[in-house]
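Work Package 3 (structural annotation) set out to generate three-dimensional models for the target panel prioritized at the project kickoff. During this period the team completed the workflow that converts sequence records into discrete structure tokens, so that structures can be stored uniformly alongside our sequence database. As a representative example, we reproduce one entry of 139 residues exactly as it appears in the project archive.
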Amino acid sequence: MNAMKQYGPLLGRILLVLLFLLSGYNKVAGFSQTAGYMASKSLPMIEVLLVLSILVELGGALMILLGWRARWGALALFLWMIPVTFIFHNFWAVDPAQMQNQMNHFMKNLAIMGGLLYVTAYGSGPYSIDKNNPNDLRF
């Protein structure tokens, strides 16, 4: 097995989850500020949605990072990102001064979702807790 195939999936998993780990931590540390931002989007049950977001972000990211049921963690983050992307980066509904910025965030989220789908499809790779169980996604 060449070095890229051996170490690439681990490095890719680390890079993919850094964003979610930092974001989840910042939600915990700035709970009231994040709740206020979510309220500005007219979301219901802010505290419940915020706690769920923290659990999905930190839990899914740790699952991917460790390679323990990484496919499930990636799928959970992928599904969570669909409404998050449409609610918080709706570039089509913002003033023209913010349109490009929100479109960039929207497209970044689509790219991240692509990475999450890749982990969902192919698993975590050789350096993972589930390395001997590549088919950990069963429906």
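The two ends are 30 Å apart (CA to CA).
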